[in-house]
């Protein structure tokens, strides 16, 4: 089942249009906490008055999104500690489901959409489930069970363009942790740059007669090899981006409400992922524009942008353009592989414009204090932000 926020399920419940599967998740969500039950009662009252339920949910989402995420992460850490106790497996499974629902989304059916843990290891999962650690400074060949070369690694790049043997569809998944980036050359010579905290699931070899489809969680910059007979499709966060040959950036981190596609050159078509037929009507994106797919409302908004703002991360440059401090925290955590605890809530609404490349996290935070004073403390990879004294 595709990832979705619990909000669309709530709306369908209010319209008495739930499927059996959605009813299962709704029941689990509403039984999870009194807070959830209180919200649903409020929505029922709004509906009874003839009000706009979606607007109420919208107000709650932006205010509560990060609070819910933070609470869920705390619950996950507690669950990890409790997992050492001898819980029956069936109860442990129910506990994990409850945590996922408390976070406000359901897991994708494929591996790529699992959140990438902020560890130091870049990992490659092969089609047989074997996981290999990729050290960025190595030059080596990775082989399959038959001993044939599957992919060649040259430092911070994996190259599949040399592999021509497979006739059956087999997937690999590359996961890039916080604080690192990595590059892939797919079997068709398409080049993919993966940003920190991202993963990509892709075929070892694209099969003739089929679309070239990959699955992204996080952020990737794609330079797609042109092949009119085999459209290239990136599935990310409930949106499919279909191209023939072009350069574009997709940002689809799990905890973000929107999937953003920025087109550098060429053209792409955007489709909701649930539409299996790509011959129908899609939405065309022009170069120099950004499309934001709202996973909650399932709507697309367009904006003309400076593409460098959204693509310079490929060069190791962090570009912030009128970005709220709350969003900046997320970007810094991924870019520098740190955790940031903000105890100065007034900062969240502050907006900054800046560009960083070789600066340390200490340099970056200090530059922000020059515009809006605050105190901070760095202990290993953990940062706490305090109000100014």
Automatic annotation (TrEMBL):
It comes from the Bacteria. Residues 318-385 form the Protein FecR C-terminal domain. The keyword Secreted does not apply. It comes from Zobellia galactanivorans (strain DSM 12802 / CCUG 47099 / CIP 106680 / NCIMB 13871 / Dsij). GO terms for molecular function: sigma factor antagonist activity. Gene3D superfamilies: 2.60.120.1440, 3.55.50.30. Residues 174-268 form the FecR protein domain. Pfam families: FecR, FecR_C. Keywords: Membrane, Transmembrane, Transmembrane helix. This is Anti-sigma factor. The chain crosses the membrane at residues 87-106. InterPro entries: FecR, FecR_C, Ferrdict_sens_TM.
């Amino acid at each position: 089942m595709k990832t979705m926020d619990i909000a669309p399920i709530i709306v369908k419940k209010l319209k008495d249009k739930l499927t059996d599967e959605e009813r299962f998740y709704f029941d689990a969500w509403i039984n999870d906490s009194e807070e959830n039950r209180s919200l649903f009662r409020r929505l029922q009252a709004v509906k009874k008055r003839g009000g706009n339920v979606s607007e109420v949910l919208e107000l709650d989402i932006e205010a509560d999104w990060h609070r819910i995420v933070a609470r869920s992460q705390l619950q996950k850490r507690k669950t990890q500690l409790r997992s050492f106790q001898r819980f029956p497996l069936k109860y442990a499974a129910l506990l994990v489901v409850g945590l996922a629902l408390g976070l406000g989304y359901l897991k994708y059916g494929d591996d790529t959409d699992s959140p990438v843990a902020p560890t130091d290891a870049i990992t490659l999962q092969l089609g047989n489930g074997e996981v290999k650690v990729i050290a960025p400074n190595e030059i080596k060949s990775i082989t399959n069970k038959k001993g044939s070369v599957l992919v060649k690694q040259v430092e911070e790049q994996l190259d599949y363009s040399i592999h021509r043997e497979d006739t059956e569809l087999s997937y690999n998944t590359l996961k890039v942790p916080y604080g690192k980036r990595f590059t892939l050359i797919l079997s068709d010579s398409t080049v993919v740059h993966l940003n920190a905290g991202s993963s990509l699931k892709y075929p070892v070899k694209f099969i003739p007669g089929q679309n070239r489809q990959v699955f992204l969680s996080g952020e990737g910059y794609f330079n797609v090899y042109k092949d009119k007979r085999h459209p290239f499709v990136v599935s990310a966060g409930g949106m499919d981006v279909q191209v023939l040959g072009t350069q574009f950036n997709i940002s689809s981190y799990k905890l973000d409400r929107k999937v953003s596609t920025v087109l550098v050159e060429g053209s792409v078509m955007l489709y909701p992922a649930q539409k299996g037929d790509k011959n129908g009507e899609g939405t065309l994106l022009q170069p120099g524009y950004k499309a934001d797919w709202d996973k909650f409302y399932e709507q697309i908004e367009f904006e003309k942008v400076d593409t460098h703002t959204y693509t310079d991360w490929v060069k190791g440059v962090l570009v912030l353009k009128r970005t709220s401090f709350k969003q900046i925290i997320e970007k810094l955590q991924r870019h520098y592989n740190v955790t940031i605890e903000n105890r100065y809530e007034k900062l969240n609404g502050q907006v900054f414009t800046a560009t960083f490349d070789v600066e340390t996290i200490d340099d970056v935070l200090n530059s922000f204090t020059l515009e809006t004073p605050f105190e901070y403390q760095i202990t290993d990879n953990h940062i706490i932000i305090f109000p100014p004294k």
